[in-house]
Amino acid sequence: MLNLLIKYAKRILTLLIVAALFTTAGYCYEQRDQYIRYSIEEAVEVMNNRACEVIVRVGEYDNKPGKRIYLNDVDIRFKDIPTDIKIHSDAHGAYIHEYDINLKEGKALVESLRANGVNAQLQFTNLKTQDLNAAGRIANKSNPYLYVSIHHNYYDGNAQGYFAMYNPNDSNSKIVANRLSNAIANNGLVRQRENQQNTGYIGELNSLNKSTTGVLLELGFFSNGAELKNICSDNYVNYVSNKLADELTKILNEQYR
Ligand SMILES: [Zn+2]
Fold it and tell me: Selecting from 3.40.630.30, 3.40.50.1970, 3.40.630.40, 1.20.1250.20, what CATH number does the domain 44-255 have?
């Protein structure tokens, strides 16, 4: 009888462990181009090995994609939106999420970095359970030298310009933020604004390893129709990704390699 009980107890325990694994899998973050899956709990642990040199994070999520802009609210036409930007629609009309613009820029930046011989990973997720702090903690698992988070801004129809946000707890973050901002100053489409200190409202930089320098880029205001057209354009995305990749490569060579 006791043997039988132990036998079933083992089976029940195995079932519970399997069930627990499936549950945590739902909270996994993906660096999808590499098909690496991490749980939030695991990601707090810091790996000693450096799995990549640069992580480019696509800000926001597929199904928690930040603010949206309706095309008919900003007088922008379908033909002004490149086909690689996803257009959604509901009863109010067609719209674009911040996430969709971030994704185009993030992918282009990783491609440019890899063309420069940099071991770069794209970090994006469609799971809305993630918070911004988790994004930083998950990056820690790969322990990159540099972490660049791509965002676009929303305020009103007149707001314009790009800037970088730096981590007040890391003096190198401010240096890298200035270098990246200056690297794209001559893009001719979106004007340069003064960089800002990363404050409480965006926690992802503050969650990074001490050995990782993080910068958050706000690459333009998508609430402004004219700027939206520019920041979605291949011209801007290609210019920005090439210049940022070249500057990041220089920083890697000077500071880390
Ligand atoms: Zn954002």
Answer: 3.40.630.40
